[in-house]
């Protein structure tokens, strides 16, 4: 968050990309796009493009990470070197490591890990094109991939960010809003219970704006949830 | 890189099929799987391509940055190839830094592109001895069903042919121009299965084959790079025969590559 800026990001209630403050970018979700993975998903969110693949439950390596009473989720978030304008060095950096770690923990809440003692469920999220909001895109895609893999889960977790630009709370920040806006709040929830499994915030929000941002991100998550279910229904058929 | 869990029964089956000139998936021993190339799907990359070779899927992105040339070639741009064996592509791919197999793969692909002079490196010079374009070829393996060598070389060639030099972004000129491409290297990879030699092995076939041989030709039918891998061996006659077969069989990949231009 650059904080204060003179840049006009919203004009007469319309954002630079033509969206209203409470409007999501276009989202396209396809389940089951890879052959080797047990479950997979390709997701486009605005210009973001993400692949997610799931293997497992399987024997956990390294062994010292095994839990006697449950499975662990080993999620890994990476950005391709060509996913951003300046080439990103390949491999895990501190940002990717943090996102991988909090995503693993978010998934462990919904996956029925107690059914698979000592096992590991591997979740790989590959961002191939990035334009702000990739962690939400990756977690959403990975949720669909977990369901596609038939991993027993209590629910899927959609993730969506809200934020603040020009003192207005908006849903789903785009690249300019992410760079020059005033706050960013990525949120992942369990739709069936309303519980929060991932929340980050950076920037500046008044208590009232925070309430508003939570409401907006939650409604974004619910919209996504419908699209996630539709993607699975598309693949497997289901009640329409 | 291959499927490590192929049963002895399957091994015997595949070997006896190969001895009769047949394959488990119905192909002939010198036949490629179906190939499909898409280009230009990534906006952040200077060039991009996705290649499907059977079920193997590789996504390649080209990035171009400005850097200083090497002291011994002040007028030449540079090129770096790296491969990411994404864990989602294969259960046996471990997360973590690149390992030997991934490095070998990058280097063989790199040699095929570099030694064929596919890229005109001198055209990448901006200011002699000071500033040149550095081309980064990043290969993302999304689905591994064998023969990553040929699929990666094809993806790299397709993405390079689709690449534009980002002059505007870096303030070099008023217009982005096509990356100058001079020729089309194509690699063919063979596997030794029992006493037979097969082209374009699947993951299952890689799991039971004993040796691997890759050869890259340019469009004039001249050899540009080769590599023998794995702990088995080929006879002298098998190598010579494979090189001839490659020239006869790489047309299908060449046609696919021409289709995108």
Layout of helices and strands, plus pairs?
The complex is a heterodimer of chains A (240) and B (261).
Chain A: E1 10-11, E2 14-15, E3 27-31, E4 39-45, E5 48-59, E6 72-79, H1 94-110, E7 119-129, H2 134-148, E8 159-165, E9 168-171, H3 175-180, E10 183-190, E11 195-199, E12 202-203, H4 207-236
Parallel strand pairs in A: 6-7
Antiparallel strand pairs in A: 1-2, 3-4, 4-5, 5-7, 8-9, 8-10, 10-11, 10-12
Helix pairs in contact in A: 2-4
Chain B: H1 8-19, E1 35-39, E2 47-53, E3 56-67, E4 78-85, H2 100-115, E5 125-127, E6 131-143, H3 148-161, E7 164-165, E8 177-178, E9 186-193, E10 196-199, H4 203-208, E11 211-217, E12 223-229, H5 236-249, H6 251-259
Parallel strand pairs in B: 4-6
Antiparallel strand pairs in B: 1-2, 2-3, 3-6, 5-6, 7-8, 9-10, 9-11, 11-12
Helix pairs in contact in B: 2-3
Task: Report strand order across the widest sheet of chain A.
Answer: 3-4-5-7-6
Based on secondary structure, the structural category of chain B is: alpha+beta
Q: What's the tally of helices of chain B? A: 6
Most extensive interface between two protein chains, with residue counts: A-B, 34 and 33 residues
CATH superfamily placement of chain B: GHMP Kinase, N-terminal domain
**Number of individual domains of chain B:** 1
- Write the CATH architecture name of chain A: 2-Layer Sandwich
Helix content of chain B: 25-40%
| First and last CA, distance of chain B | 32 Å
Low-confidence stretches of chain A are none
Q: How many H/I helical runs of chain A?
A: 4
Largest sheet geometry of chain A: 5 strands, mixed
Q: How many E strands of chain A?
A: 12
Order of helices and strands of chain B: HEEEEHEEHEEEEHEEHH
The fraction of residues assigned to DSSP E strands of chain B is: 25-35%
Low-confidence stretches of chain B: none
Roughly how many Å apart are the termini of chain A? 42 Å
Helix and strand element order of chain A? EEEEEEHEHEEHEEEH
């Amino acid at each position: 968050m650059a904080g204060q800026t003179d840049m006009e990001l919203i004009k007469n209630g319309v954002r630079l990309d033509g969206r209203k403050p409470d409007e999501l970018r276009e989202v396209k979700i396809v389940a089951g796009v890879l052959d080797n993975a047990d479950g997979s998903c390709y997701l486009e969110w605005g210009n973001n493009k993400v692949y997610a693949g799931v293997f497992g439950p399987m024997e956990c390596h390294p062994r010292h990470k095994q839990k006697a009473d449950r499975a662990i989720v080993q999620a890994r978030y990476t950005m391709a070197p060509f996913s951003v304008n300046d080439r990103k060095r390949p491999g895990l950096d501190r940002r990717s490591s943090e996102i991988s770690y909090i995503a693993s923990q978010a998934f462990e809440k919904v996956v029925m890990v107690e059914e698979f003692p000592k096992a590991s469920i591997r979740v790989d999220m590959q961002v191939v094109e990035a334009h702000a909001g990739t962690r939400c895109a990756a977690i959403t895609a990975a949720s669909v991939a977990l369901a596609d893999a038939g991993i027993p889960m209590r629910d899927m977790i959609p993730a969506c960010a809200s934020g603040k630009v020009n003192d207005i709370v908006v849903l789903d920040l785009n690249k300019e809003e992410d760079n020059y806006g005033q706050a960013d709040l990525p949120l992942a929830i369990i739709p069936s219970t309303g519980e929060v499994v991932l929340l980050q915030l950076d920037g500046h929000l008044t208590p009232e704006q925070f309430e508003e941002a939570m409401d907006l991100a939650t409604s974004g998550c619910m919209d996504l949830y419908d699209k996630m279910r539709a993607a699975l229904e598309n693949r497997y058929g289901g009640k329409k | 890189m291959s499927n490590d869990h192929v049963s002895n029964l399957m091994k015997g089956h595949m070997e006896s099929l190969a001895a009769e000139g047949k394959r488990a998936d119905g192909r002939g021993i010198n036949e490629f799987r179906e190939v499909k190339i898409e280009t230009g799907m990534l906006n952040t990359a200077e060039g991009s391509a996705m290649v499907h070779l059977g079920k193997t899927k590789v996504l390649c992105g080209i990035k171009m940055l400005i850097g200083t040339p090497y002291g011994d070639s002040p007028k030449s741009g540079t090129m770096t190839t790296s491969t990411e064996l994404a864990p989602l592509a294969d259960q046996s791919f471990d997360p973590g830094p690149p390992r030997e197999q991934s490095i070998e793969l990058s280097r063989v692909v790199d040699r095929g592109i570099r030694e064929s002079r596919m890229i005109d490196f001198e055209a990448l010079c901006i200011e002699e001895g000071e500033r040149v374009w550095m081309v980064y070829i990043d290969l993302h393996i999304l689905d591994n069903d064998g023969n990553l060598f040929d699929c990666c070389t094809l993806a790299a060639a397709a993405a390079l042919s689709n690449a534009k030099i980002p002059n505007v972004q870096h303030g070099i000129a008023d217009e982005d121009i096509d990356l100058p491409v001079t020729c089309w290297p194509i690699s063919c990879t063979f596997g030794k299965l029992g006493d037979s030699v097969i082209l374009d092995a699947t993951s299952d076939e890689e799991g039971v084959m004993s040796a691997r041989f890759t050869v890259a030709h340019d469009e004039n039918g001249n050899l540009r790079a080769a590599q023998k891998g794995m702990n088995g061996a080929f006879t002298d006659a098998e190598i010579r025969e494979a090189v001839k077969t490659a020239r006869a069989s790489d047309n299908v990949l060449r046609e696919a590559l021409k289709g995108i231009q």
